[in-house]
Design a protein that fits this description.
This protein is of the alpha+beta class. It contains two helices and 13 strands, in the order H-E-H-E-E-E-E-E-E-E-E-E-E-E-E. The strands form two sheets. It has a seven-stranded antiparallel β-sheet, with no helix packed on it. Strands 1, 3, 4, 6, 9 and 13 form a six-stranded antiparallel β-sheet that branches.
Length: about 220
């Protein structure tokens, strides 16, 4: 009886280190994956898993100029903020958007904004605002989504361009210390339903390269 127990103990002692090593390897892998997309690696500007974030968002559609696009901000079934609606080109419309004031003005000493999103394959726009009421001139950058896939998009701060009512304002440059709000906009001139989930938006430091100009007609 003792011999059997002793042999079992010896076998467990031999197998246990292998199991432990495998578990540690898996743990390190999952930790590295988590940190790769961890919004805490930079200051969080937008937390899409917070109901409080949703409550601070303000929808602005083309109805302000007679259009008929519709949109809303809410939580998806997975508990992540979702911007969705229907884009219409009627009555010279064609854009839907929302914007939200930042809890803290300015973008620190970082050089890039990173956003984790899951969209529908359409092209959206990230807007920054340097005025208190988050209206008038916006500083913008476009990005493409992949249908039903989570992606992380990087926006170099020096690549944001100023616009007002669809007009480019090349003489105006973004002052990171004055940024007071952030928002997302769809205006790809393709009527129909749209949907994008936003998990988080944060600041980061990246090696960035120059980017080209983008333009469209929406405000």
């Amino acid at each position: 009886m003792f011999q059997i127990t002793h042999n079992k103990v010896r076998r467990h002692m031999c197998v246990h280190p292998l199991i432990t090593l495998s578990l540690l390897t898996m743990l390190l892998f999952f930790q590295s994956e988590a940190h790769a997309g961890d919004p805490q690696s930079g200051r969080v500007l937008f937390n899409g898993r917070s109901e409080e974030t949703v409550s601070r968002c303000r929808v602005v559609n083309d109805d302000v100029m007679g259009g008929r696009s519709r949109s809303r901000v809410g939580m998806s079934s997975g508990g992540i903020m979702q911007f969705s609606g229907d884009l219409s080109l009627e009555n010279n419309g064609g854009f839907a958007s929302f914007r939200m004031p930042l809890e803290q003005q300015g973008l620190d000493s970082m050089n890039t904004i990173v956003a984790r999103v899951r969209g529908d394959g359409r092209t959206y726009r990230l807007n920054l605002y340097d005025n208190t009421d988050l209206s008038g001139v916006s500083f913008r950058q476009y990005f493409e989504t992949k249908a039903d896939q989570w992606i992380e998009v990087e926006f170099p701060l020096k690549a944001f361009t100023a616009s007002w009512r669809g007009r480019e304002l090349p003489q105006m440059k973004l002052d990171e210390s004055r940024v007071k709000g952030i928002g997302f906009l769809l205006g790809d001139k393709k009527p129909g339903p749209f949907r994008i989930e936003i998990d988080w938006v944060r600041l980061a430091n990246r090696e960035v390269a120059d980017s080209g100009d983008n333009s469209d007609d929406e405000s």
